[in-house]
Design brief:
The chain is mostly helical. It has four helices and no strands. It has one domain.
């Protein structure tokens, strides 16, 4: 699983849309949270959200997408 996420992050970093980077970080977060690395996962979500600069519909959609990464309460 880690190599697939590594490839996703590489593709995002070399892509032309900064939202890819945010989505890749959020995806890694989900994997880390599965393995109970919640603190590290949540820090990746924060990093991913910091990449998003605008407030277009796409930006807002990615910001909302991260909500599925938070642990259930």
């Amino acid at each position: 699983m880690a190599s697939a996420v590594d490839r996703l992050e590489w593709a995002a970093a070399n892509g032309d849309d900064p939202l890819y980077v945010a989505q890749a970080k959020i995806t890694r977060c989900r994997v880390l949270m599965y393995f109970d690395a919640t603190d590290l996962g949540l820090s990746l979500v924060e990093q991913g959200l910091d990449v998003i600069e605008g407030s277009t519909e796409d930006d807002l959609a990615v910001r909302g997408y991260h909500r599925g990464s938070w642990p259930a309460t």
